[in-house]
């Protein structure tokens, strides 16, 4: 039995460093000037990652990533707007659900879970429906790990004079996006993904002009990003009780992000994790669901072994006992499981996870892979 805390190979919450967790050992007051400086510094550093200081505001929001997605749509899409939601997995479907619940008009375009949306598709859809005002895209669709071609899609949307809302939750900080080159109204991410903070807050990079025009759009007080930003700009404080420990942990995680070498280094470590994982699983005969060309180095979906002796629940428990937490599959048609490549882990941990999987399959007498 493995006794140390298991390594989370899941796309959030994920494994954090001891230093990041240690940063939560202080109780901050929300009126504390030093805490307000922490928030301001956080927003400044986050904006720098997308080169967005001149064009966008960073608006942090309490809650998990979905809260920030819902807030971005509710705040930036006017009540008479219409959203084209691009779907190739569960998170795209969630955006459509958000539009439905908020009462924003929307249409959907769905491709198979192993098919990226193309810029040509988006161009055709926008030309066919002039009523569309906004397009919502999932950058890396975490339900499989597929990467959608953001720069090409963003360009088509801008050329058609429409606005783009990007759910970059699982890619921000690891895959590059330059706000001066990729036009968008909002890019949404959260504390507990590639920045390796703890979960509890999201943040939205909102185009300054669009946010200024968004007063009164929101259907909700707590989810109003325009109000959240206006209050913070005026007072330096969060509008409602801030997730103080989460902010402090994210600030500490960002220091480590920069020490490591920023985005290029984070991307490289995750790419190495992903390569080690893919190569190791291939030696066991376990096939990945996506072709490598569209696989983001964030999370990998694997086909489950065909052998009737394989059951995910037992497999999960046995791998967990060896120190690694895997993730169930999220596909409806095929039996799969997922392994995350992100978090405070290296290729050495990934190889150890592969070795644990090999041992467990042997122990379970799973032969037909
Ligand atoms: C994690 C994630 C979210 C947010 O999910 P929460 O459970 O609310 O944190 C949204 N979109 C994508 C693509 C994600 O990976």
From TrEMBL:
Keywords attached to this entry: Aminotransferase, Pyridoxal phosphate, Pyruvate, Transferase
InterPro entries cross-referenced by the UniProt entry: Aminotrans_V_dom, NH2EtPonate_pyrv_transaminase, PyrdxlP-dep_Trfase, PyrdxlP-dep_Trfase_major, PyrdxlP-dep_Trfase_small, SP_NH2Trfase/AEP_transaminase
Pfam families cross-referenced by the UniProt entry: Aminotran_5
Coiled coil: none
Domain Aminotransferase class V: 34-302
Residues bearing PTM N6-(pyridoxal phosphate)lysine: 193
Family: Belongs to the class-V pyridoxal-phosphate-dependent aminotransferase family. PhnW subfamily.
Subunit structure: Homodimer.
HAMAP family: PhnW_aminotrans_5
Name of this chain's protein: 2-aminoethylphosphonate--pyruvate transaminase
Natural source organism: Pseudomonas lundensis
Organism ancestry: Bacteria, Pseudomonadati, Pseudomonadota, Gammaproteobacteria, Pseudomonadales
Gene transcribed to yield this protein: phnW
């Amino acid at each position: 039995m493995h006794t140390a805390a298991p390594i989370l190979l899941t796309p959030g919450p994920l494994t954090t460093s001891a230093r990041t967790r240690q940063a939560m050992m202080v109780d901050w007051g929300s009126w504390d000037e030093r805490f307000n400086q922490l928030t301001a510094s956080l927003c400044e550093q986050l904006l720098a990652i997308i080169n967005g200081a001149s064009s966008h505001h960073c608006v942090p929001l309490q809650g998990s990533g979905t809260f920030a997605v819902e807030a971005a749509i509710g705040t930036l899409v006017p009540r008479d707007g219409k959203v084209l939601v691009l779907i190739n997995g569960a998170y795209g479907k969630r955006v459509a659900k958000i539009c439905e619940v908020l009462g924003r008009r929307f249409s959907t375009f769905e491709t198979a879970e192993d098919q990226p949306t193309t810029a040509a598709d988006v161009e055709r859809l926008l030309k066919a429906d002039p009523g569309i005002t906004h397009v919502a895209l999932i950058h890396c669709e975490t339900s499989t790990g597929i990467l959608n071609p953001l720069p090409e899609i963003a360009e088509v949307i801008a050329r058609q004079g429409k606005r783009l809302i990007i759910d970059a939750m699982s890619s921000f900080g690891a895959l590059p996006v330059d706000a001066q080159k990729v036009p968008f109204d909002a890019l949404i991410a959260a504390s507990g993904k590639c920045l390796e903070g703890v979960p509890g807050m999201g943040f939205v990079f909102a185009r300054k002009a669009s946010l200024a025009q968004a007063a009164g759009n929101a259907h909700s007080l707590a989810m109003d990003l325009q109000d959240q930003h206006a209050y913070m700009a005026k007072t330096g404080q969060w509008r409602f009780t801030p997730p103080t420990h989460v902010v402090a942990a994210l600030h500490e995680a960002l220091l480590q992000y920069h020490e490591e070498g920023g985005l290029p280094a984070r991307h490289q470590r995750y790419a190495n994790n992903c390569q080690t994982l893919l190569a190791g699983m291939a030696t066991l005969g376990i096939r990945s669901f996506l072709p490598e060309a569209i696989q983001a180095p964030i999370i990998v979906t694997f086909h489950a072994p065909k052998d009737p002796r394989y059951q995910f629940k037992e497999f999960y428990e046995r791998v967990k006992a060896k120190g690694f937490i895997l993730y169930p599959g999220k596909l409806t048609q095929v039996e799969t499981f997922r392994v995350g490549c992100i978090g405070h882990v290296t290729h050495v941990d990934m190889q150890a996870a592969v070795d644990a999987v090999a041992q467990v399959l042997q122990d379970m007498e799973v032969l037909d892979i």
